[in-house]
Design goal:
This protein has helices at residues 5-18, 42-46, 51-60, 73-81, 103-110, 115-127; strands at residues 22-27, 32-37, 63-68, 88-92, 95-99, 132-135. It has 136 residues and is of the alpha/beta class. The chain folds into two domains: 5-68, 2-Layer Sandwich (GMP Synthetase, Chain A, domain 3); 73-135, GMP Synthetase, Chain A, domain 3. The strands form two sheets. It has a three-stranded mixed sheet, sandwiched between helices.
Amino acid sequence: MKLDLQLIGYINAFENITKARVKDCFFAKNNILIFIVQPGELGKAIGKNGSNIKKLAIKLKHKIRVLGFDNDPVVFVKNILYPLNGYQINFKNNKIVINTENKILKGKIYGRDRNNFKQVNEIFKKYFKGLDVAIE
């Protein structure tokens, strides 16, 4: 986890406004600022009706996404994929397998040129080395 001065400033602003502890902060490829908060602090970070996120987006002048970290890799993948639902996630042979019969949902998980799925893999592999994510 490499943090520069700018990201440290973002983390400080996030923690001061939300009172939630940040585990990591980075920019996604689509220039969205992603905060990963400690387990159990997602609700505190978002605030009532998303008020904390709205304040931060205005103050930091970036789109913001908040993810809740979990030590269980299956739950963490669900947190990354939120708000999508209608799929099953299983853990098989050091691999997290996302099963869905719905082609539209599968397309949303993959994204254009598989960008969404690549981002899911990048975020996941930061914390769970040796495990892979696959879609069936």
